[in-house]
Amino acid sequence: MLASLMLALASSVALHAIPVNTIYIDMPGAPKQHLALHCARPAQASRTSVLFIHGASFPTMLASGFEFAPGDSWLEYMARKGYVACGLDFLGFGASSRPPAMMGPAHAAAPVTDANEAANEIALAVDALRKKQGMTAVHIVAHSWGTVAAAAFAARHPDALSSLTLFGPIVPVKATADTTPQAAWWPLTAQQRLEQLRFKDVLPPDQHLLEPAVDNTWAPSFAASVPHVAGDKPETLRIPYGPLADIDAVSAGQYPYDARDVIVPVFVVYGNYDDVVNDAGATSFLQRFTASPLKWRLRIDDGTHVMHLERNRYSLYESVNAFIHAAEDMAP
């Protein structure tokens, strides 16, 4: 009810679009490779940033940066709250470079952009925000597989962040990892991914949660975000395989970091229809962060694993904003 009211209020007010500018970050030791950092800035100057980390298959501008209407994206929402709101595209995604392995046969190279590499890329983005953009505080908001990379970064750079939000985190659900041969990339079509986002096998038959704009424009935008490789079918998108390898390992309890090394406030948030994490999994997962001075866990009703693309997304926005405020209030 509250989420519906908030959405109605937001829809009744005409939002002015906030420009989203892209900063390109060169990759050390790889002169032809770069990362893309998409940023929306508040009206008043700010030295506090929220850095969004995307999941396994689609980039920033299809996630936190997706506009449901002019001016209506999670990036712009956080910019209106006074933060420099940025979203990082990992190598192989969105406006970032495609590594050479993405151009060759799938099984000719190791998985592209696993969590360890992604954590290094987050380090470059945080460094750019602090040293080149003048940020004195950075809060990370990560989704799905991105939570693995973000937590790995937080564990290895304990003083770099002000808080860590893990939205729909990957948690252990099986005993062993698969032995399926891995590849550099995997094929997907935009329409296939859109159908997955509907979560028809999870939701009640009469319930549809995706925002209308996602139904109408998301798939062609996703298709346009991935360069076509000669010889592929026209609808085929090449997606880095590293995240899938990480998801399989973490689902079997093999994390690339020690949660005890994370010393910032941690927030685990998920929807009641999330098929990746439930109450028991979230509780057990959050208990691993023994050094965190503040731990929040929240289940939001009427949300799936992609709640940021759904009708109740404002409940997610507001809860994350409240947590960041709580973390800032604790800061010395």
TrEMBL record:
Stretches assigned to the Serine aminopeptidase S33 domain: 75-311
Pfam families linked to this entry: Hydrolase_4
InterPro entries assigned: AB_hydrolase_fold, AB_hydrolase_sf, Hydrolase_4
Organism superkingdom: Bacteria
Keyword tags: Hydrolase, Signal
Range of residues in the leader sequence: 1-17
Coiled-coil residues: none
Entry keyword annotation includes Disulfide bond: no
GO MF: hydrolase activity
Gene Ontology CC entries for this record: membrane
Protein name (record): Alpha/beta fold hydrolase
